[in-house]
What we know:
The chain is an alpha+beta fold. The protein has a single domain, classed as CATH 2.30.170.40. 27% of the residues lie in helices and 36% in strands. The strands form 2 sheets. The protein has a two-stranded antiparallel sheet. Strands 3-4 form a two-stranded antiparallel ribbon. Helix 1 (53-62) packs across helix 2 (64-74). The radius of gyration is 16 Å and the shape is elongated. The two termini are 15 Å apart.
Amino acid sequence: MAAHCQVTGAKPGFGHSISHSHRRTKRRFDPNIQKKRYWVPSLRRTVTLNLSAKGIKVIDARGIDAVVAEMIARGEKI
């Protein structure tokens, strides 16, 4: 599963791990991606989305119909 949120667009960030001696090694900060199924009344079917934890909160606040309509307008495949 790709580390990319379909609602918020969150993707991995990159940086350094810094040891006690201050040596830096490259690392990756992945968003908290979850696979979640929702029933969408306007489409009359379930959709499976890859969402970050913040994306799940956005759907809880705005509603699945509004979020899916915005994703379709953006041209994203659902």
